[in-house]
Amino acid sequence: MTAVVFLGALALLTASGYCCALPSVRGRPVIYRLALAHLCGAAALALGVTAGVVLADHVSLRWGAAGLAVAGLTGVLIGRTKTEAPREHLPEPAPVPLVDTRAGIALLGILTGAGILTAVLRVAMLPLDWDGWAIWQLKAKAMADGSLRHLLTSPDYGYAHPDYPLLLPAHTWWLSGGGFHEDLAQLGGLLFFLDLAALFYHEAAARVSRGAALLGCVVLVSWPLTVKHAASGFADVPMAAYALLAVAALVRSDLRLLAAGLTGALLTKNEGLFTLAAAILIVTLITAQRPTASARRLPLVLAALATGAVVAGGWALVKARWGLRGDLLDPARWPPDLLSVLPERMVTVAAGFAAESVRVGPRYPGWGLLWPFAALGLWLSVRRGLAETAPLWSLVAVHFAGAAAAYLVTPLDPAGHMATSLDRLMLHVAPAALLAALVAVAGSQAAGPLHVSRDAAP
Amino acid sequence: MITQAEESRPPAVSPSLRSWCLLVLLAGAGINLAAGLRRPFVEHRVLRGDHYARADLAAAAVRARVPAGEPLTVVVYEGDRLNLLDCDTWFEYRIRWLLYPRSLRVARVPVGGGAERLPGYVLSFRVTAPPTAPERPHEVLSRGPMFILARTRAQ
Fold this sequence. Notes:
The structure holds two protein chains of two kinds.
Chain A: H1 2-21, H2 30-56, H3 61-79, H4 102-125, H5 130-145, H6 148-153, H7 167-175, H8 182-205, H9 210-222, H10 224-231, H11 236-252, H12 255-268, H13 272-289, H14 294-322, H15 338-357, H16 370-384, H17 390-409, H18 414-427, H19 430-442
Helix pairs in contact in A: 1-2, 1-3, 2-3, 2-7, 2-8, 2-12, 2-14, 4-8, 4-9, 4-10, 5-7, 8-9, 8-10, 8-11, 8-19, 9-19, 11-12, 11-13, 12-13, 12-14, 13-14, 13-17, 15-17, 15-18, 16-19, 17-18, 17-19
Chain B: H1 4-7, H2 15-49, H3 51-65, E1 72-77, E2 81-82, E3 85-86, H4 87-99, E4 105-109, E5 121-125, E6 138-143, E7 147-152
Parallel strand pairs in B: 1-4, 1-5
Antiparallel strand pairs in B: 2-3, 5-7, 6-7
Helix pairs in contact in B: 3-4
């Protein structure tokens, strides 16, 4: 019975997301379409639940269902007016010797499968991890129990970060048919993991050869951190997926996917604010680079700002109404002698980022050679003026700057705070960094400024 | 639109160097993948016998022996540390998760004194040493390697 409920709920959510993503998904591979549909559906669900709290002052699955219905209908109605097929106008990327061979592709496919199998094994064999049960899925349990407001406002549960947004708990709640099942919470996490892998592959394959894209996918699913958080009940893999979706949609000038990506990011974690800031920065960069096209970029600017205002504003209203406070965004909790400890903290934070970047593995977080590779990619991008990688680097830079700022003002010991969270904050943009570096090292090098995909309009 | 200058822009790295860069990146990923495939089995074995499994037992005992709505006090011990883990904090959060939405009172006590005099249903949990039973007249309802569930009687 639980499986039937799960499949039914997932089908509804995905169908709504699919309609919402029309026509962005037309003509694309099935796996990519499903990934987008799931991401858009989850964002619509969370928006509905949040709107319910704003408008009716209570958390209700009906509002989530209304969010799905409105998003799906809107997608269908607007989608009918835009049926233009994607245009292919960029040359095929050059194949990479050794990698783009039949044997190479087969091996990379097997390795990708091994990474996905690891995630599946974790879901099957391991329970939720600490923050998964103490923060994220505890809220899903409270939603199922009808006691979310009590949980968020009770001092007994102050450790559960009441100010965090509700996409992930709402997703579990929905997939559990209004109840709570720990296994389904983990299955939901696995879906976001698969979304991220599919999204990454699609975006990479639009920029580099098939073998290089698949190799990037292997790297992504090899990180212990990614596979761990596919099953842990944490919100970091969904956050990474939405951040990547937002920047990819922005570069394609795809307004609906931009709105979905930003909505998802803003309602998954507070770090979604960094994604929003990055989106605004990227639009500014695009406009500065091509002032003649600034009129055509206006809808992008408006979409980013409107999504930010509605979604972040809505959640801010909920926090204000229920008196939910975060420990980082509340200046009252910052260290009283902040200015005097700032230099010391800056050294600590810089050292923390540097140390994290060389943790190659295989122990957690096990980045492999990602960050040295990203440094190489960044150097190549700058040296060759690869504007097509600029949006991705901008996303990485804004997230890193935001995370660094948070560590500078944290009421906790910065070193200890970083030890428990920096790996996950870096995970939010690690796929974007990997993609940018792949483009710099293995891309066709022929795309126009900030114009990344073969299916983007000229 | 692709300009001629962009089309004629030479590749950033030579094809062979590009291959080597990617293969080195892949080698790092391969090591991670190999280690990652083994990890769920190792972690599963650890979790079956550590404090997580004991906490599950304690929660099951509460569900079985303490009527819903009855006040429950959870006793944890200051300084109950396992490597870097503050077990007292961990157990408070863990038992709140396991028993949600049951409300419970948490008493954090020094080892060897204090909360043993608490009335009603008392769940004592300690990871690094056996917990102590209440000093008041009591009835032990359930006992495990890291916990004692007792009901104290009026004095």
